[in-house]
Amino acid sequence: MPLSAAGSRRLVHMRDVQLRGYVRDDGQIEIEARMTDVKSYSMGNLDRTMIAAGEPLHDMWIRMTLTPADLEITACEARMDATPYNMCPQTAPKMERLVGLKVGKGFLRAAGQRVGGTEGCTHLRELLQPMATTAYQTQYSLKNHALDGQPRKDNHGLAPGLLNSCHSYAETSPVVARLTAEEENFVSN
């Protein structure tokens, strides 16, 4: 369902974020993220004298490799194809500092300690939140569905960590009640 009709306006900025979750042939998970910022008008700055309308101000990539069981980062690389300043790409190699962290409780705080502030890039750090969510979704797919998309026969109940994580997974919600009943029914049979 689309949003309500907008008033008269003019587009000036477009940010696109793409995320993809993969399973590698060796069983590890890879999450790729790309973020682009584009203006609808031409502009310049200290290092780029002309950035034409429609040309990316930012075009940045991150690929994170994780273990499927506990989402520990085993590799992380970043690239910056377009940046506002010539020195911005110096921060991309620092994303390797995320290796060894686990995506889970405290991940964003720990990542900020390694690549935050003047040690990193705000835009690359901003991609870490949706990358973490994409990692969970990819892990869920691996645990709960065969690669052909069919549900696994052992897929029952509420996944650990979901209880009270949102409105639908509130311990008092009808969704949790149904999932709990399904798990109890599976265990008793």
UniProtKB/TrEMBL annotation:
Top-level division of the source organism's lineage: Bacteria
Organism: Acidocella aminolytica 101 = DSM 11237
Protein name: DUF2889 domain-containing protein
InterPro entries: DUF2889
